[in-house]
């Protein structure tokens, strides 16, 4: 596996981290991901996801 990685910053209670990420940033040195993933990492932060909260109606 390469060192291509994308960090997703999400709220701790989020149920759809990839879709609701505050923002994503690329890490690692590789320019392109190889064929064997995953190349995603979720960084959970305290707080509530506004998008998820809106769907709880
Ligand atoms: Zn890879
Ligand atoms: Zn969410």
From TrEMBL:
It comes from the Eukaryota. This is Uncharacterized protein. The lineage of its organism: Eukaryota, Fungi, Dikarya, Ascomycota, Pezizomycotina.
């Amino acid at each position: 596996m390469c060192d291509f990685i994308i960090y997703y910053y999400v709220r701790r209670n989020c149920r759809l981290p990839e879709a609701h990420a505050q923002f994503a940033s690329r890490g690692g040195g590789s320019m392109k991901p190889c064929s064997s993933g995953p190349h995603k990492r979720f960084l959970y932060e305290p707080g509530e996801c506004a998008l998820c909260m809106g769907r709880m109606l």
